[in-house]
Amino acid sequence: MSTGINRYVEYLNNLSGQILLGCDGFVDETYEIVQERKSQNDFTAMKNLKMFGELLVERADGGVGVELVPKRRCEGGFGINSGRIAAILGLKPRLPGLYGEPTIDPAFVEFEDICDIYSLGNPALTIALEFDDGKVLMSDLQAVSNLTWADFEKFFTEEQLKELFTGVDILGLGYWSLTADFDGFFQGFMKQYETLTPPRRMFFDFADIKKKSSESFIKSLKLIRAYNSKIPMTFSLNEHEVLELCSRIGIERPELNPATIAATLTVAREKIGFDELVVHTPEFAAASSAADGEAYAIQERQTKVIRSAGAGDSFNGGYMCASLGDLPIKERLVMANAATAFFVTHATGPTKEELVAQIKKAADK
Known about the structure:
By secondary structure, the protein is α/β, with parallel strands linked by helices. The protein is built from 13 helices and 14 strands. The strands form three sheets. It has a seven-stranded mixed beta sheet, sandwiched between helices.
């Protein structure tokens, strides 16, 4: 076994820490689209997202009817999908969110023993159209949009709230664009650390930045930046979101290649005042850190994808786990890439041994 791989083995064997992630919860009903049906049990599924887009454009002046075939009904959302990676790697993340009321929805039952789940209500619903190269997510967001920090505070006693936020190493907050009271949750989270020892890092996935106005986006960035000196902030984006970020903060649109994105992240990071920016794509991940500088890690696009919804969250979960210790920034990206590659080809998170095996396959270790 190479010295490089030994470094990951040693890190994972000593992995420890507490992760707290809030505050969403989705049930994903996932379908594929029939492109051609030969018989009752024999059909060809539409493989590419581009094909679906071209179909919509072709019939834009009329109507479009498609046949859906169910693939699965399963868990979804930032908290549970990111937390899964930590849980399977042996940690037990704390996950307050929307997982069912009065009992846990069957989609989340498998997580009850490996995560500390706190259900504040029923989950939102996402209809996912899945293709080999991507997905279309259509969500009824009422449950998530209506959840507020005030609801969160009412759910827990003062002592329970203190216990929940005590001893946290990494604090995560997801889906800014889907959570109406995102700023309220962030301020509520920060309020807990006026008296408690703050986490070593806070992690964000804003999701679809385009959905919300530039005014609200900039307001949230300024709010988070004000706490960056107390808790280092990490902002995670996909290849589309990083372009939107650049557009909204006045940075010229970069080419989507690893070195250019890494350099652009440094400019963006300094402009918005965050400690760390991370980008994940199907072919590479890149990052810029105030302490560690720039890095990128190449990852071959996976061709035998069986589940794409949750891929970005799996990257986030892998990156957070990689951030619990002293791995250099490139190794953190490699570990997160491997978690994603395993997830999309197995529809679950990797064990420590499976993660090491996936890293061995990586194009850029």
